[in-house]
Design goal:
two-stranded antiparallel ribbon, mainly alpha, 10 strands, about 625 residues
Length: about 625
């Protein structure tokens, strides 16, 4: 068995298996001549250790992008990063100001928790997997069961790394089945279409699925973070959807294919014990009035994201398919920044809040044209059929997932507050530092939790992120450890199927898939009789609600555009709740910009740029410009 965190074996493997990064360098020389790859694959433990090193490139995602941020969540219309003003040199500030290039983009700079430097690191990882696959059949392995499972994992890891490249760069890539040697002629490197690369990803996933030794679920903590067949079908589900989408389909219609892949993926996952997290399991949420969540739908949704999947045969969480070991929560770096006085991190946008329906299942806005001013978003185009939404009482009667995901004006949080209240905090004065319940007031002028354009602990938008934050986490409450990033889960597969089925004219199945997601939190089914176009709009909105702040929206809004489009209508202006506290204690609600327009909406921001030096290398080697448009 492979123990992923066996540091002794891992360090040995790193010493003997150093592989250089780009195709312009030597790729498989032993680092000091003391051991060769033949010796590595001649020893069972070293073979296992080599496979371990293939795992080390998996992006952690979650809350561990550089300087404790959420990366793509902050770069889409989902949220605003408070560090964009407080630390403008960090990625969000650079992107918002448009001050990035192929030489200075996030992708060229960071790799915290494996997040960043993707072009270099993913190709290094792909080559490692290919070296392993080139040698495993003749390697000295003690059991054929191990050989089969390890080979399956290497296929799946390679598919995963290709998926990362396609998600961020979205460009034609070479398909590499065997590892190149440094003496190879790279001038003949051929790039395949996006669709063909996805077919190669599916081929690798199918090779992994063919192994009888690859399990559907990890049931031992000693094997934590290893890949499974569930990961394989999830990669197929996601990438078949991407390949069919307007940004990537090159004019082809692949929706029926995506539908078939996703239908089979969901069937296989359900048949092998995966199911939606559908009840409140822990007394910390179920019996604790201090969680301040209004119903079981909100409680189970928040509970799910604040706890880790278990590595056991019958886990409480049967929904999570894969989690990384990157942190997902952080009460001192995200959430309500005043709690510790540091920073609030990702502040949900008004646009995200607008997506949560009222309890009768009616959208707040007209989804076909949500804003009358389509760029600045200051004039909401309200849904005339919605009778529950009140612009001056906007947080009543909302989807349970809203309360589980967002702290808003008037929310309550019980935890350790690291300050004495002052008279300016009208809702909470007087109160001393300590463990207590506090009303989260977000109007401009509230000194602790109010909206402010530059203060790091403040909210930029009138909202704080709650989804991954334990209700009472703080220095006086032990919450059982940090939640990990759940980067693949069954809820996504349901929504992938819903979208593909609707696009492929299987409307009944699309309804059933999306309604299954809604029912688990107590939301009513979508109304019958929607046209195909109306159903697709509802499914897309459901993705925004269900998958909010999980780094899907960034990629969704891009893949739904055509290659010639830009992101002006979604990403140029992000709005905030501009709240005024009246003398009688009531509030007046309005909308306004967060602070400034974002300049990362132009066409080129549909894709990451290739690092400038890597693009130059490929231009010199192949005579072809590999760089993405506009960079």
């Amino acid at each position: 068995m492979i123990k992923k965190h066996n540091k002794g074996i891992l360090q040995l493997a790193l010493a003997v298996c150093l592989l250089l990064v780009s195709c312009s360098r030597a790729l498989d020389q032993a680092p000091d001549g003391k051991i060769s790859l033949d010796e590595v694959f001649g020893d069972d433990e070293k073979v296992a250790a080599y496979l371990n090193t293939c795992y080390q490139y998996i992006p952690g995602e979650g809350h561990q992008y550089f300087f404790w941020m959420r990366g793509p969540v902050d770069w889409s219309d989902e949220a605003w990063d408070t560090d964009a003003e407080a630390e403008a040199w960090i990625t969000s500030g650079q992107l918002y100001s448009g001050n990035v290039s192929a030489a200075s983009h996030f992708n060229t700079q960071w790799a915290d928790a494996g997040n960043g430097n993707y072009w270099v690191r993913m190709w290094q990882a792909i080559r490692k997997c290919s070296v392993f696959l080139d040698n495993i059949d003749n390697a000295n392995v003690k059991t054929e069961a191990n050989r089969s499972r390890w080979k399956a994992e290497a296929h799946l890891l390679r598919a995963y790394y290709y998926m990362v490249l396609l998600k961020f760069f979205g460009c034609p890539l070479p398909v590499i089945r065997t590892a190149h040697n440094y003496v190879d002629d790279f001038s003949q490197t051929q790039r395949s279409s996006y669709y063909d690369v996805v077919q190669f990803i599916i081929e690798d996933c199918d090779a992994a699925l063919a192994s009888p030794e690859l399990p559907w679920r990890i049931t031992s903590g000693q094997e934590a973070f290893r890949f499974t067949k569930a990961v394989a079908v999830s990669v197929k589900s996601r990438m078949s959807l991407y390949a069919a989408s307007p940004l990537y389909n090159a004019g082809g219609n692949y929706w029926e294919e995506a539908y078939q892949v996703n239908k089979q993926a969901l069937e296989n996952l359900k048949a092998n014990g995966y199911e939606l997290y559908n009840k409140v399991n822990f007394a910390t949420w179920r019996d604790n009035p201090d969680v301040f969540l209004p119903n079981d739908g909100a409680k189970l949704f928040n509970e799910y994201f604040c706890n880790n999947m278990g590595y056991e045969s019958n886990p409480t969480d049967k929904e999570t398919i894969y989690q990384t070991n990157a942190g997902q929560d952080g009460f001192n770096t995200e959430g309500v920044g005043a709690q510790q006085g540091y920073k609030s991190g990702s502040c949900p946008s008004q646009e995200t809040v607008d997506c949560f329906e009222t309890t009768d299942g009616q959208p707040v806005l007209d989804l076909a044209k949500p804003y009358l001013d389509e760029v600045t978003h200051l004039q909401p185009n309200l849904n005339p059929a919605n009778t529950l939404y009140n612009e001056q009482d906007p947080y009543e009667n909302r989807d349970p997932r809203f309360y589980a995901s967002v702290y808003y004006n008037g929310s309550k949080r019980k935890c350790y507050w690291n300050f004495d209240e002052t008279s300016e905090s009208v809702e909470n004065f007087p109160a001393s530092k300590g463990y207590r319940t506090r009303i989260i007031a977000t109007y401009a002028g509230e000194p602790q939790t109010g909206r402010h354009p530059t203060i790091r602990k403040a909210t930029r938008t009138g909202y704080f992120l709650r989804k991954f934050l334990h209700p009472n986490a703080g220095q006086e409450v032990v919450t059982g450890g940090h939640a990990y990033a759940k980067v693949m889960r069954l809820g996504e597969v349901y929504l992938n199927l819903a979208e593909a089925a609707a696009e492929a004219d299987h409307l009944t199945e699309a309804y059933e898939a999306v309604n299954t997601i809604r029912r688990r939190v107590g939301m009513p089914d979508l109304p019958a009789g929607l046209s195909k176009e109306q159903l697709i709009l509802r499914i897309r909105n459901e993705r925004r609600v269900e998958l909010a702040f999980e780094a899907h929206r960034y990629f969704d809004v891009r893949r739904w555009h055509k290659p010639t489009d830009d992101l002006e209508k979604t990403d140029r202006w992000i709005t905030a709740a501009h709240i005024t506290r009246n003398a009688n204690g009531s509030y007046t609600y309005a909308r306004g910009p967060v602070s400034r327009e974002r300049l990362c909406y132009q066409n080129k921001f549909l894709w990451f740029p290739l690092p400038l030096n890597e693009a130059n290398i490929m231009l010199a080697l192949t005579g072809e410009n590999w760089q993405n448009p506009g960079w």
